[in-house]
């Protein structure tokens, strides 16, 4: 590597002086104008990661998911499509915060030496971006880093986040017995559409599905997928709404999965007929939520907990009917935000173990799975909703001086730092029936999120307020 060339290229992509960057669950995510220098440096760390893993391809996705249009983000994907190994988040944070171009070069070389990485060995990075206008300059900075450090790269242009995860895995398994699929965007559509037809086993989807695409990348990509799904065979009738990707300012604006989840209502542009089957994706199509609305029963939401419970119930029924319950073990993976009623339903009614973790989801493939199960069960959304009743819950955002002092353990369900905060939360929770509450730092803004649930709406609200007050006290 030519050091002078490195410094020359790095100088084109400076970081913003005085800003401290930290790699979180969403990678580096913030206002887009703070990110060009970050994107260059993420290219450096992605190249190192690939070289450390003997040249396996590493993915980089440029997206800010459900955030407003002026934001963007850069995150790294490991070879099998999973999130970046946690130990490497610290390396990414260290490299990105190097204050000068000379110190950046020195830190880069030190990291390579410390991790025993040969800077002359081959490396490969694949990357994509969502529809945000700022994405173009960010992938330009990324490519400059890969070019100057001798890393082979492929630009897959505009993708959903799950498509980039898919392609990363496909590149690394191509030509092996564990080949995941065709290494192309079309390969993704073929894999999903063929699985959808196979899983329906001759049954047809009943009624129209209205899909709100958050005016994000999911709109054109879902439209492309539908070209691969034979409507005459599947009965899959989809109406795509909120698919305006030409006006950046409307991305995630009063629409999308995050809007529906937080506002507890359908996007105002939808105006669905009573009991119409609706779902919403988020801006990069890795979140999904189902719902319906009618004048009598009002709005009812079927979120990720409901979707995982539906999937678990269906798969466990199939395993039992095939007589394979002694040979196959089924478990359900949830995050800390899972409603306690869903965990109880899965453990007691379905008799399945629950594991708490975090990973990436694919809203479009999850949507197809839901449609398959509803077709097999001949269920409406209303039938699905009767499986259990959610515990009342509340999610509160608390602004703090420095979110990074709040560190978690136990799959983000307990605070390890600052000392004493978790003890106070525990004391509050003990005062309520079937209650729990936790707080964690936001991955995208200088704030903490407090989740609380309890036996009644009043208790859930009260508990959330008390825990928010504790966080405010420790965070001020």
From TrEMBL:
What detail does the entry give on cofactor binding?
Answer: Binds 1 Mg(2+) ion per subunit.
Q: Which InterPro entries does its entry note?
A: A-D-PHexomutase_a/b/a-I, A-D-PHexomutase_a/b/a-I/II/III, A-D-PHexomutase_C, A-D-PHexomutase_C_sf, A-D-PHexomutase_CS, AMG1_II, AMG1_III, PAGM
Q: Where is the Phosphoacetylglucosamine mutase AMG1 domain?
A: 200-288, 303-359
Query: What CDD domains does the database record attribute to this sequence?
Result: PGM3
Q: Name one Pfam family in it.
A: PGM_PMM_I
Show where the Alpha-D-phosphohexomutase C-terminal domain sits: 395-468
Active-site residues, record numbering mapped to chain: 65
Question: Which pathway does the database say it acts in?
Answer: Nucleotide-sugar biosynthesis; UDP-N-acetyl-alpha-D-glucosamine biosynthesis; N-acetyl-alpha-D-glucosamine 1-phosphate from alpha-D-glucosamine 6-phosphate (route I): step 2/2
Q: Which GO terms describe its molecular function?
A: magnesium ion binding; phosphoacetylglucosamine mutase activity
Q: Where does Mg(2+) bind?
A: 65, 282, 284, 286
Please give the cofactor(s) recorded in the UniProt entry for this protein.
Answer: Mg(2+)
Provide the top EC class: isomerase
Q: What PROSITE patterns does the entry give? A: PGM_PMM
Q: Which family does it belong to?
A: Belongs to the phosphohexose mutase family.
Function (record text): Catalyzes the conversion of GlcNAc-6-P into GlcNAc-1-P during the synthesis of uridine diphosphate/UDP-GlcNAc, which is a biosynthetic precursor of chitin and also supplies the amino sugars for N-linked oligosaccharides of glycoproteins.
The entry's protein name is Phosphoacetylglucosamine mutase
